[in-house]
Every structure is written in structure tokens, then in C-alpha cells.
Amino acid sequence: MAKTKTDFYNLPSETVICPTQAISEEGPSERDLRDGKITESTCVKCGLCIKFCEHQNLAVSDFDFNTDDFQNMTEPQINAATSVYLSTLFKFSANTNRNRSLLFDGYISDIYDEAFVEVDWADDSLESLRRILGDILTYSKSHNIKQGLIVLSHLPREGSRDVFTLIKKMKSFPTTGDIEIYITTFSLLRAMCLYLKNDTYTMKQLFFDSTTETIKDYVTRIRPLFEEIEIPDNI
Prior knowledge:
The chain is α/β, with parallel strands linked by helices. It has helices at residues 30-34, 48-51, 75-87, 125-138, 163-172, 186-195, 203-206, 215-222, and strands at residues 92-95, 106-109, 114-120, 147-152, 180-185. It has a 5-stranded mixed beta sheet, sandwiched between helices.
């Protein structure tokens, strides 16, 4: 049977994500299988082989929100995985790291808005926000994009010098008051990719907005979207 566009998650060039090549068009090599290189220890648990198995004969077992195995991926692989997750949720998503002339990590478009995406495994939410503001300023003459998405390992917590304070100050300035910043995590994106229906959501529905809600409020708000798993309080 011929493969369709959706068989390899919209962006066939992103088949470099899996270190086992399990989700590439060619699949893992016979030699790697014979030599035992394709094992649980080499799996980064991104879940994409389950999502895009063309025979639909894979399933999630004992799902949890731990994404520590992602640290075994390279930065390009993490950015690519993020883009693929987003592509299952919105009208369009692109991993821009392959184009060195673009400063931002990714781009998404839902049915209403567009957003720049900044990805940071090390949870530097402040630097990610600064990069998004730079993205918006740099491309403001050619694109009217006023949204940004920060993707982290964990949602940030409030402190003396946190990203929430900077977002609040940003919203108070007339020239930046119309910018919307959303935050999510790799584990949340993975769960959304695996358990939510495709192409039916907006950024405002799925992601955390510190200007309108607390993390507790956010978790309470998105829990009804998931029927098969429970979203933990400390996501």
C-alpha cells in the first residue's frame, strides 16, 4: 500500500528523529536488528512510532510524563520532534532549524493565529522569551506575528526573577502589549500528540498563558481534554 502524507507525520524530512530509525521510511536496518542494536535502551520514548504506525498495531503501555530520555537526542532531533508533535495538533507546523537563515526554532499556525516557536531543553524560559521578542521584532516588517510559544522540559515556577515577571512587564508596554506568549513542555506535547484528535485546537486552548491563569488553573483546565490519562499537578 502506498504511503500517504500523514503516514510519516506531515514532514518526511523529520525521519531523523528516532535513533533506531523505527519511524523512517526505510525502517531499522536488518544488520542493526540482527546485532541487537534496536533495544529498549536505545528508545527515547518519543511515542511517534505509535502515533504514525501505518498498520496501527502499536499502543502505549504504562504512559508517564517523564521525558528524561529526550536528553539522549541531539538538539536537532529534539527540535524536530517538537515540530512533529505540533503538526498533529494544528493546521501547520515547521521545524526551521534546517534553514540557518532563520533565527527561530519553529513556526506554527492554528486556524486563527501564527506563532514563533523557541525550544529549550535546559528550561531557560527567560532566554527563550527574549529570543521570541527578537523574532517578532526582526520579522515585524514582513510578518504580523504577535504570538510566541516556549517549549521547555518543565513549566517555569514563580520566583524573584522569573519569566512571568518579564511577560507581565512586556504586556504593560504599548508597543508589546498585544504580544501573546504561551508555554508548554515536551511531555505535554507528547501526551497531546498521542491522545488528542488531530488539527482541531488553537494555541489558546492547549497551552499555558501566565497572564490569565496559574499553573494549577491551567492543569485543571486541560484535564477534561484527556480521557485515558491523568495530568499530574507538577507537570
